[in-house]
Amino acid sequence: MSTTITAADINKLRQSTGAGMLDCRKALTESNGDFEAAIDWLRKQGQKVAAKRSDREAKEGVVIAQTTADNKSGIVLCVSAETDFVSRNPEFVAFVQTIADAAIANNVKTAEELKATPVGSETVADMINDKLAAIGEKIELTRFERVDAPYVASYIHGANRMGVLVSMTKEASDAGKDVAMQIAAMNPLAVDETSISQETKDREKAIAIDMIKAEGKPAEMAEKIADGKMNKFFKDNTLMAQPFVKDNSKSVADYLKSVDADLKVTDFKRVALG
Fold first, then answer.
1. Measured between alpha carbons, how far is residue 89 from residues 21, 58, 191, 266 in Å?
2. What H or E segment, with its residue span, contains residue 266?
3. What mean pLDDT comes out for the span 241-257?
């Protein structure tokens, strides 16, 4: 039994990949409506589609990244809205900041815990419901992340449209800001090659091999070429291997070594609208 492909399905895939309408329709048809399989199908046809990322939230809203006073913990959260009229309103930004402050003050560790956190006489969940009723738009807490480390740096980019947290092995405020800005600009998938799941590695290599074979290359050659493509994938998509944006003659790993030989990034969180 074939799956019905709707215009909404096609539009969703177009928005996610930038591929053309007819290509998106064919991809969804070939993958029987499976969205992730359709993305893989497009990539195997040579479409310039980015590797799967999970950092994007609603198109509108406010993102706040914030650390504790001692920089030992940090949170990044997104409260979504339906229009930029709301998300750009200073009162709405202040409202989301109040929620972030409550998360820090109450040592909140999860989104569910945050929703139950009291702010004055009501909970954060009550605050969100009250705001929804007042402005007439659907708003919700769509993302909450927390990190703990010897030193955590935070960065907010583009009028609260993106927030970044960086976990580091020791205090380094300038380097922390530099790395956070790197993550904001270059959107790595992971800290290093070992941080990328085997599933993702296998998926990327399989796509590379299929693309190479489609060019008419023999199987044994496809395997070797795919290894080279994987090296480029790691360089483009892992933080430590990426060229440092402030000096692309060195990698981010080299930059950190130049600051302090013992300074390392152990984790990061990046949350972005759009």
1. 35, 17, 35, 35
2. strand 265-272
3. 97
Pick the CATH number of 1-49 from 3.40.50.2020, 1.10.260.40, 1.10.8.10, 3.40.50.300: 1.10.8.10
Q: Is 186 helix (H, G, I), strand (E, B) or coil?
A: helix
Tokens of 202: 């296998």
- How many CA atoms lie less than 13 Å away from 206 in the CB half-sphere? 9
The pLDDT tens digits for 129-165 are 999 888 888 899 999 999 999 999 999 998 999 999 9
Q: How many Å apart are CA 178 and CA 250, to the nearest integer?
A: 14
Give me the residue spans of the domains in the chain: 1-49, 60-164+267-272
Q: Residue 49: pLDDT band by 50, 70, 90 thresholds? A: low
pLDDT, one tens digit per residue, over 97-106 is 999 999 999 9
CA separation for the pair 251, 234 (Å, rounded): 12
How far the first Cα of the chain sits from its last, in Å, is: 35
Fold of 60-164+267-272: Tetrahydropterin Synthase; Chain A (3.30.479)
